[in-house]
Amino acid sequence: MDISDSNGGVTLVAQIIDGKAISAQIREELKSEIKRLTDKGVKPGLAVVLVGENPASQVYVGSKEKSCLELGIYSECYRLPENTPETELLALVDTLNHKKEVDGILVQLPLPKHINEEKVLMKIDPDKDVDGFHPINVGRMCIGNSRFLPCTPWGVQELLMRTGNDPSGKHVVVLGRSNIVGKPVANILIQKAKGANATVTICHSATKDIASITKQADILVAAIGQPEFVKANMVKDGAVVIDVGVNRIPDATTKSGTRLVGDVAFKEVSEKAKAITPVPGGVGPMTIAMLMKNTVKSAQMRAGEIKI
Ligand SMILES: NC(=O)c1ccc[n+]([C@@H]2O[C@H](COP(=O)([O-])OP(=O)(O)OC[C@H]3O[C@@H](n4cnc5c(N)ncnc54)[C@H](OP(=O)(O)O)[C@@H]3O)[C@@H](O)[C@H]2O)c1
After folding, report:
1. C or N terminus of the chain, fewer CB within 10 Å?
2. Rounded distance, CA 278 to CA 6, Å?
3. How far is 235 from 214, CA to CA, in rounded Å?
4. Helices 19-39 + 55-71 axis angle, to 10
5. Which of 18, 103, 129, 131 is catalytic?
6. Where are the beta strands (DSSP E) in the chain?
7. Which of 266, 85, 290, 275 is nearest to 180 (CA)?
8. Nearest ligand 1 atom to alpha carbon 175
């Protein structure tokens, strides 16, 4: 879209990729499938485990419970005290692994320091690993035979596809190489598959002259946790920009004294990009929608409708 600025010039304004609306559309699509499975006696079920009182984790877990309720997914939520021994958590995961009505298990991260996260993630039955973090599911994703894709990266792919920005043949530059966002986004988008087929470059903290690489991106995915790091002069005209970052910065003009921003300087980049996700309201809402989708997929596996 073009708009005239006050000087009579023309400023390009990007299409805003509305993650809230797209995630609502996905949830709506899931409702009929959940009803069909429930009528068949296979009501999808999700167990969420929270250890400790991390305020952000409490919000995430609350949203996941609410989303299950809204869609008709059976849910169990375990809120354990901060000092829960690792053995106790492992025993709970084991119980959930064997519980028929639980199709998906999500252990909210981060866990308290005395608990080994990897050990806990390894304990989750890969067939119930709706977060997609178990090494078996990571491996399956890498070889292009995925069972559960990790929710945030899968959400990034859905945002692209549902806004007509098919990554096929495009140069995608991913900023960040974490196991939960950067690496899986890159892995998903390089697959020889529908919704992928991109040429992907990954940048990280040891990458030299990042701007020279980001400027080559047809699609730029920022996931580094650095407030407003990506400036307009780092982005090619007409690029599609997906901002995964969620950063809280001081802002004296707000009631709380803070506000959320992404890894992209939204205003200036939106004057250069073809399309861009806002923060909040872009990638964030997609994560829960994709978690619900994975839970439904797991129930379809229990019903013997999907064999992978
Ligand atoms: N919307 C959602 O649902 C959602 C979900 C998950 C995460 N997030 C947000 O996404 C962001 C990234 O999360 P994460 O878990 O992937 O973070 P992370 O584990 O801290 O990883 C950050 C990555 O960015 C790289 N990096 C950091 N500073 C950099 C710089 N100045 N230049 C280049 N690379 C840099 C790091 O490089 P090295 O590997 O070299 O250290 C690392 O690979 C955070 O803001 C997080 O809150 C949002």
Report:
1. N
2. 24
3. 6
4. 50
5. 131
6. 2-4, 10-12, 15-16, 45-51, 74-80, 104-107, 171-175, 199-203, 219-222, 240-243, 247-250, 258-261, 275-276
7. 290
8. 34
* Annotated catalytic residue, options 18, 103, 108, 128: 108
Is the distance from the beta carbon of residue 79 to the nearest atom of ligand 1 less than 6 Å?
A: no
Distance 243 CA to ligand 1 centre (A): 11
| Rg of the chain (C-alpha set) | 20
Angle made by CA atoms 35, 39, 45, in degrees to the nearest 5: 65
Ligand 1 centroid from CA 125, angstroms: 27
Query: Is residue 131 annotated as part of the catalytic site, yes or no?
Result: yes
Q: Evaluate: CB of 284 within 6 angstroms of ligand 1.
A: yes
Give helix 151-162 / helix 19-39 axis angle, nearest 10°: 110
| Residue 181 CB less than 6 A away from ligand 1 | yes
Nearest to 166 by CA among 176, 158, 178: 158
Angle at CA of residue 113, ends 107 and 114, nearest 5°: 95
Indicate the DSSP class of residue 101: T
Q: How many angstroms separate the CA atoms of 292 and 26, rounded?
A: 9
